[in-house]
Amino acid sequence: MNKAFTKEEDGSTPERLPDLPISEHPNHVTPRGLAQLRERQSVLEAEVARLRNNREFLDDLYPLAVAERDLRYIEARLSSAILVTPPDSASQVSFGTTVTVEDENGKRARYTIVGEDEAAPENGLIAAFSPLARALMEAVIGDIVEWPKPAGTVELEILKIEV
C-alpha cells in the first residue's frame, strides 16, 4: 500500500487529497450543464459509497481519495452554479446560443457558448470566457468579429444564431 495516501497510524483511512482548483470565473451553467453536474455528483456519490463499502478488499486507498476529492469539486461547482436559461429567440450571440460562423477561407464552424464545466471545444462547446466566445458575444448575423489567436487574428462572419 502506498503510504503517501494513508494515515500512518493504521493505514486504513485515506488522507484527504488537496482540492482541485476552482475557477475564478462566475460559474454560469446552462440547464444541460447543470444536469450534467448533478449526474456527475450522483455517479461520484455511488462510487464513493462503493469504495467505502469495499475498503477491506482494497490494497490501495488512492481511488477512494480521488473519488472523494472529485465529489468535493462537483459539490463546490453545484453550490456556486448560476443557472442561465438560454433566450427564447436569438437575435444576437449570447450564453447558451449556437452560432454558425465562416472564416476568411470559407470554412464554416458551429459553436455553442456554455459554462466552464460543460465546455468541450472538440465538440464545438466553448466556455463563455474563452477568447472565441468573448469575440462572438453580442454579435448579430452579418457581423464580422475578430478572434485573437496566438498565430494571429482570424475574422469570422456570423451566419446563423440558434437557441
TrEMBL record:
Q: Cite the Pfam families for this sequence.
A: GreA_GreB
The UniProt keyword set, sorted, is:
Elongation factor, Protein biosynthesis
Return the PANTHER family for the record: TRANSCRIPTION ELONGATION FACTOR GREA (PTHR30437), TRANSCRIPTION ELONGATION FACTOR GREB (PTHR30437:SF6)
Q: Which residues form the signal peptide?
A: none
The biological process GO terms on file are: DNA-templated transcription elongation; regulation of DNA-templated transcription elongation
Q: What protein am I looking at?
A: Transcription elongation factor GreA
| UniProt domain Transcription elongation factor GreA/GreB C-terminal: residue ranges | 90-162
Residue ranges, compositional bias (Basic and acidic residues): 1-10
Q: What GO molecular function annotations does the UniProt record carry, in alphabetical order?
A: DNA binding; RNA polymerase binding; translation elongation factor activity
